[in-house]
């Protein structure tokens, strides 16, 4: 009797956006209208995100990197100035600092939370420090009390943390300016996109002025950083169900914590006054993260380092033990609203098998 062929299931991806029929209808409505460029839909999206955070309407742009660039320009940061940023982060903040001609000053991270270590930031401060970029890594708010106490303008990088709370206030409402990202795999998406937010309306006006360059009476260096109306339509649709998406992430995280409590891994830290929104579920593993990722891949689960390479490694620098430890031992496993119950069970069992 011939053996029956069993189709091999595709691997579970590390990330996957959750696009619903309502999202498709929202984008199709704008496409049918023919009004595709920046317009009324973008203005509504800016107002709704601002209202969601209790802030004035934001400034929508085409990426989180563009938002960081405009934030630095809005604060007047330029040549001769220094900006502190963590080493353990994607390279976008580094590029933004370089765009304005300032000097990046890397600081280490707490290897438990992966957020900026305030004690190390203090050591890096100089008379030329003009801003501190503070990412809320993987959805867990940074130690804002300590970082704000330095009296240096803080740019809150909420690319992975919109909806998280610190001291019962939304992140993004503490710094001089904050940015969010709407990349395809972020907490809510417009495909590509970002936004600047602030309580300072004059600062918002300065940043908005730099966003696009056409039809101006006075010449200044400006940029083509606009978001489109059909992207904004997707963002508005996603924003309406953001609470549901965040709740789904937290539910999966709770089950992961419960099922993996006995494994020889480090789980994300408890909230303690900070609400984690789990853009990434990052575990610390006792052996090389790459080794664990390969073993999981053999079991049909895609896991990845949450940061491709720390900036100090890219620049050939030393003296960042927290970031170096994270580089070697931090691993992000699949967690997103579109993860099915079957896929979740496979992820749970796969990690249990790796450390059995």
For the record, the count of structural domains works out to 2
Overall SS class: alpha/beta
Please tally the β strands and state the result. 12
CATH superfamily of the largest domain: Type I PLP-dependent aspartate aminotransferase-like (Major domain)
Helix content: 25-40%
Q: Which architecture of the largest domain would the CATH scheme give at its second level?
A: 3-Layer(aba) Sandwich
Specify the CATH class of the largest domain.
Alpha Beta
The name of the CATH topology of the largest domain is Aspartate Aminotransferase, domain 2
Major β-sheet strand ordering: 1-9-8-5-4-2-3
User: What about the largest sheet?
Assistant: 7 strands, mixed
Shape: globular
Mean pLDDT across every amino acid position: 96
Q: How many helical elements?
A: 13
* Regions with little confidence, pLDDT below 50 for 5+ residues: 1-7
Along the chain, the helix and strand elements come as: HHEHEHEHEHEEEEEHHHEEHHHEH
Please tell me how large the radius of gyration is: 21 Å
Q: Name the beta content range.
A: 5-15%
Measured distance between first and last alpha carbons: 37 Å
Question: How would you explain this protein's 3D organization?
Answer:
The chain has 356 residues and is of the alpha/beta class. It folds into 2 domains: 220 residues, 3-Layer(aba) Sandwich (Aspartate Aminotransferase, domain 2), CATH 3.40.640; 113 residues, Alpha-Beta Complex (Aspartate Aminotransferase, domain 1). The protein is built from 13 helices and 12 strands. Strands 1-9-8-5-4-2-3 form a 7-stranded mixed sheet, with helices on both faces. Strands 7-6-10 form a 3-stranded antiparallel sheet, with no helix packed on it. Helix 1 runs antiparallel to helix 8 and helix 3 runs parallel beside helix 4. The protein is globular.
């Amino acid at each position: 009797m011939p053996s029956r062929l069993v189709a091999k299931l595709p691997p579970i991806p590390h990330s996957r956006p959750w696009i619903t029929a309502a999202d498709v209808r929202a984008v199709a409505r704008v496409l049918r209208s023919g009004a595709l460029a920046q317009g009324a839909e973008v203005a509504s999206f800016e107002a709704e995100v601002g209202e969601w955070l209790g802030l004035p309407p934001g400034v929508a742009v085409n990426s989180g990197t563009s938002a960081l660039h405009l934030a630095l320009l809005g604060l007047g940061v330029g040549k001769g100035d220094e900006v502190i940023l963590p080493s353990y982060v994607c390279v976008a903040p580094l590029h933004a600092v370089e765009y304005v001609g300032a000097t990046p000053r890397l600081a280490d991270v707490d290897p438990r939370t992966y957020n900026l270590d305030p004690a190390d930031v203090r050591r890096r401060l100089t008379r030329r420090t003009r801003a501190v970029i503070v990412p809320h890594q993987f959805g867990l708010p940074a130690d804002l009390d300590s970082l704000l106490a330095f009296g240096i303008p803080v740019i809150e990088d909420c690319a992975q943390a919109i909806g998280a709370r610190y001291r019962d206030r939304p992140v993004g409402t503490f710094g001089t300016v904050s940015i969010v990202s709407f990349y395809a795999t972020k907490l809510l998406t417009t495909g590509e996109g970002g936004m600047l937010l602030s309580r300072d309306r004059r600062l918002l006006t300065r940043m908005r002025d730099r966003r696009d360059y056409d039809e101006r009476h006075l010449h200044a260096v400006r940029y083509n950083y606009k978001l489109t109306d059909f992207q904004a339509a997707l963002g508005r649709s996603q924003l309406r169900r953001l609470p549901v998406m965040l709740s789904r992430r937290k539910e999966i995280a709770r089950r992961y914590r419960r099922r993996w409590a006995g494994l020889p891994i480090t789980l994300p830290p408890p909230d303690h006054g900070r609400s984690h929104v789990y853009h990434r579920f990052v575990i610390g593993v006792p052996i090389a993260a790459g080794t664990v990722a390969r073993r999981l891949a053999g079991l049909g689960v895609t896991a990845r380092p949450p940061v491709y390479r720390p900036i100090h490694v890219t620049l050939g620098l030393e003296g960042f033990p927290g970031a170096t430890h994270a580089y070697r031992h931090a691993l992000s496993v699949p967690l997103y609203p579109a993860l099915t119950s079957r896929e979740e069970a496979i992820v749970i069992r796969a990690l249990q098998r790796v450390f059995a």
